[in-house]
Amino acid sequence: MARKSRTFVVIGLGTFGGTLARDLQRFGNHVIGVDLDERHVAPYADDLGQALILDARDDAALRAAGIDAVDVGIVAIGTDIEASVLATINLKTIGVETIWAKATSKNHHRILSKLGVDRVVHPEREIGQHVAQVLNNPLVRDYVSLGNGQHVVNFRVPSSLQGKTLAGLSYERDHNLRCIGVLRGTDYVGHDGKSCELEEDDLLLLLGSRQDLRDFASLL
User: Fold this and answer.
1) What is the model's pTM?
2) How far is CA 157 from CA 12, 71, 217, 220, in A?
3) Do residues 56 and 87 touch, judged by C-beta distance below 8 A?
4) What is the pLDDT of residue 192?
5) Rounded to an integer, what distance in angstroms lies between the CA atom of residue 81 and that of residue 79?
6) Please, are residues 216 and 177 in contact by the beta-carbon 8 Å criterion?
7) Is pLDDT larger for residue 69 or for residue 148?
8) Going by fewer Cβ within 10 Å, which terminus of the chain is more open, N or C?
9) Average pLDDT of 185-205?
10) C-alpha torsion angle, residues 47, 81, 38, 5 (rounded to 10)
11) Is 60 exceeded by the pLDDT of residue 138?
């Protein structure tokens, strides 16, 4: 069954907002990009469902543009905290049900949280943490934070584990981790409870807390 597309408004078409808007549109959604600066709007005129020069601090202007009918609003304004806060308040005022917002500081985050946004994101900090995790251990190819302290890490299987089975790694007994799967190229070749003989450069996907994952990685 095909996924139903949704409508999004992205307010603030800087690097973060513009990239987000383009990708959401590319995924088959209808995206309205909004920015007060014509120079930021013009590059997206042919890429988005709509690209509007509009002041998101004006709730009447948002209503007139049909923003009250979108499924999700993203406030991607980073440099002007007042504009970010007012845009967020206006999205809530006009009835947008789901709102995500970018924060640039702890105080900014605190204000947005008090306003009741569904999620506050820190793109620069989150990307920095992501890159640090990958650089810290050469075997870590990628990782995803799932919230509540849980992470999925994608480990490259080193030559020292060539020929070993999943059961032989004792990741569950000794490190409280779960194996989501093993990928060999594009093929899925094993998971928890299965007899799977590892090969060098397989990708091992493990789920657990950051500390447990670090402890396991230090032994590889």
Assistant:
1) 0.69
2) 41, 42, 11, 9
3) yes
4) 56
5) 6
6) yes
7) 69
8) N
9) 77
10) 20
11) no
